[in-house]
Write a structure and sequence with these properties.
Blueprint: H1 6-15, E1 20-23, H2 30-38, E2 43-46, H3 50-64, E3 68-72, H4 76-80, H5 82-91, E4 95-101, E5 127-130, H6 148-168, E6 175-180, H7 210-222, E7 226-230, H8 237-249, E8 252-256, H9 271-277, H10 280-286, E9 290-294, H11 301-309, E10 314-318, E11 333-335, H12 339-343, H13 364-367, H14 371-395, H15 401-408, E12 417-420, H16 424-429, E13 439-442, H17 452-463, E14 467-472, H18 473-478, E15 492-498, H19 504-508, H20 511-522, H21 529-536, E16 539-542, H22 557-574, E17 580-585, H23 588-602
Parallel strand pairs: 1-2, 1-3, 3-4, 4-6, 5-6, 7-8, 7-9, 9-10, 10-11, 12-13, 12-14, 14-15, 15-17, 16-17
Helix pairs in contact: 1-2, 1-6, 3-5, 3-17, 9-11
This protein binds thiamine diphosphate.
Thiamine diphosphate is lined by residues 421-424, 447-450, 472-475, 499, 502-504.
């Protein structure tokens, strides 16, 4: 009888770079558990709740950019991976989802834990693969010298390698390997001989065609107002220094939110404030002739509104995982090469070897003069104005979510990873300049609130770096099962901004609609976070002391006492040796008014 060689599957995973596997318990997946836990080079982590397990694996893949295996039993367990699969799809993360299944003859036969698993993630998967049923036994085919069993085994090995390789090819993404397994399940599979054959696609590097490079540079040189928007992405030192050089030496507004992990003194990292502060004339004057985008999506609503209204004549999208994503309704050119391959050509003195239309040192004074100077100086005058208005406003804030991040973020020691939950924490974090010595992450693939605790835990485990996760109370409660993890990393600190429900809708929504939908927006609760943390064995702290009263005037004594207590508590909390949760209570009404007032102050 043909039996699938699950040990081959584990060996192929290891050979193709899978170093971690998250396994949710079950019976049907026992052969997978036996093989993966016995496989040298793969560390296995048990997590019971499949939704949290999925995000735990996603957090590992997000930080490490390595493929991570995610394994479960048959039935509804498979569907509980779906939110993590869709998030991985839009973040282009190589999750290798391996699901145990019944042999196909048992599907829809009222057998337990049996659902239709083939292609179950249909729209949100880079590839769906089905391994041969390990019951299948065909008669050996005469004449070709290969038994059908050996041919099926070779087919199975090829499918596993093809699936993992598919996940790793640009644009990266999750893949699904469905594995029908027949009983007996609780027996160790026999060893395999010979070892599996590994197939893989080798790395290549694409350069822009000379014609494309020429067109890009001539558009660049023709444009007197250029804007580069960098979306969510990993830190990249080469791109960072390139963009800083462009911001410093050319007439270009470079915008990079904290999640892009790009930063520098000439780069605007607070686009929500920047675009909200523009007066009508400035908006028109800043309309770019040429927009260049790199990386994933951006968070800033104000930026999107601005660019959809003041559309650029040309929008060049470089190296995107999601081509044809016409975010600003202005897309004209897609160039599927690494962004730096084109951008390095426009730096003064860099373009000589490619053609005469490049900005050379001789041309630099011309570019830096005349109408172009207006654009550059406008950007710096708006930035200066925002800095003055917003910092005065932030100084006077009463105790609220924004004030917490104002005080907390500067205290985070260098080298930490900051994980942010949707939706208010990530938005508020972008009111403050990006710190070059931190790395920022958030699940912005689908902006869900359902897996952020587990994502932060997976990221902390994979990085081994001290990690701070900042969450709203609903996001935290939604994924409180993310705490249910025997490998919960000791290097993770969680700050929960507890305003007893959702704040975001009251901040951004229309007043009349908010009033009608209040109970559904607020989702009020009175969960005792201390008891919750205790149940999971996680250390709990609370910011105590007098909450500051709302006061638009100068800071009075009570406020400054409360502020000093807060700073002390934050610093002490970050210095704790193990995993811990800090609950910071804030008032919903004050949060909403502080948020709205900030934007009024800027206008
Ligand atoms: C899975 C999922 N369900 C619903 C939403 C819609 N949503 C966005 S933010 C939010 C509330 C978040 O509340 P909380 O975490 O307390 O943060 P706050 O807004 O209070 O700062 C909800 C329900 C979502 N993004 N994802």
């Amino acid at each position: 009888m043909f039996r699938l060689d699950i040990k081959h599957l584990a060996a192929i995973c290891a050979a193709l770079g899978v170093r971690r596997a998250v396994i949710a318990p079950g019976s049907r997946n026992t052969p997978l558990t036996l093989a993966l836990t016995a496989q040298p080079g793969i560390a296995c982590f048990p997590v019971t709740d499949e939704r949290s397990a999925g995000f735990f694996a996603l957090g590992m893949a997000q930080y490490s950019r390595e493929p991570v295996a995610l394994v479960c039993t048959s039935g509804s367990a498979v569907l509980n991976f779906a939110p993590a699969v869709v998030e991985a799809y839009y973040q282009n993360l190589p999750l290798i989802v391996i699901t145990a299944d019944r042999p196909s003859e048992w599907i829809d036969q009222s057998d337990g834990q049996t659902i239709r698993q083939q292609n179950i993630y249909a729209n949100y998967i880079k590839g769906s693969f089905q391994l041969p049923t390990d019951r299948d036994r065909e008669p050996a085919q005469a004449g070709n010298g290969v038994s059908s069993s050996a041919a099926t085994a070779a087919f199975s090995d090829r499918i596993v390698a093809q699936a993992i390789d598919t996940a790793l090819q640009f644009p990266r993404g999750p893949v699904h390997i469905n594995v029908p397994l027949s009983e007996p399940l609780y027996v160790d599979m026999p060893g395999h001989t010979p070892p599996p054959r590994i197939l893989r696609t080798l790395a290549t590097d694409t350069l822009p065609a000379a014609e494309t490079a020429g067109l890009f540079v001539s558009s660049w040189n023709k444009a007197s107002k250029r804007m580069i928007v960098v979306g969510t992405g990993h830190p990249d030192e080469a791109v960072n220094s390139l963009l800083n050089a462009i911001a410093d030496t050319t007439e270009t507004l470079v915008i990079a939110e904290n999640l892009s992990n790009i930063n520098g003194p000439g780069i605007v990292s607070t686009p929500d404030l920047f675009f909200a502060a523009l007066i009508e004339d400035e908006k028109a004057a800043l309309r770019p002739d040429m927009l260049v985008t790199i990386g994933h999506s951006v968070v800033s609503k104000q930026l999107k509104i601005y660019l959809r209204t003041y559309q650029p004549a040309e929008h060049w999208q470089l190296q995107t995982e999601l081509p044809y994503a016409d975010t600003y309704r202005a897309l004209t050119h897609i160039v599927p090469v690494k962004g730096s391959r084109l951008l390095e050509l426009v730096l003064p003195g860099r373009g000589r070897d490619v053609g005469p239309s490049f900005v050379t040192e001789e041309k630099l004074p011309e570019v830096m003069s005349g109408a172009t100077r207006t654009y550059r100086s406008l950007v710096s005058s708006v930035s200066g104005r925002i800095r003055t208005l917003s910092s005065a406003y932030f100084r006077r804030l009463p105790h609220c979510d924004i004030a917490v991040l104002r005080d907390l973020l500067p205290l985070v020691p260098p080298g930490w990873v900051v994980q942010l939950a949707n939706s208010t924490p990530v938005r508020i974090s972008q009111f403050f300049d990006t710190r070059a010595d931190l790395r920022y992450f958030c699940n912005r693939g689908t902006s869900g609130i359902e897996g952020s605790v587990a994502t932060a835990a997976g990221s902390a485990l994979a990085s081994g770096l001290p990690t701070l996760f900042i969450s709203g109370d609903l996001s935290f409660l939604y994924d409180s099962n993310g705490l249910w993890n025997t490998n919960f990393p000791s290097n993770l600190k969680i700050v929960v901004l507890n305003n007893e429900g959702a704040n975001i809708f009251s901040m951004i929504g229309d007043q009349q609609v908010i009033e009608r939908c209040q109970p559904f927006f607020d989702a009020s609760h009175s969960v005792d976070l201390e008891a919750l943390c205790k149940a999971y064995g996680i250390e709990y702290r609370r910011l105590s002391g007098e909450p500051a009263t709302p006061d638009p005037g100068p800071i009075h004594a009570m406020q400054s006492r409360a502020a000093a207590t807060a700073l002390q508590t934050f610093a002490g909390f970050l210095a704790l040796p193990g995993a811990a949760v800090l609950e910071v209570r804030t008032d919903r009404a004050i949060n909403v008014s502080s948020y709205k007032q900030l934007f009024k102050t800027l206008q």
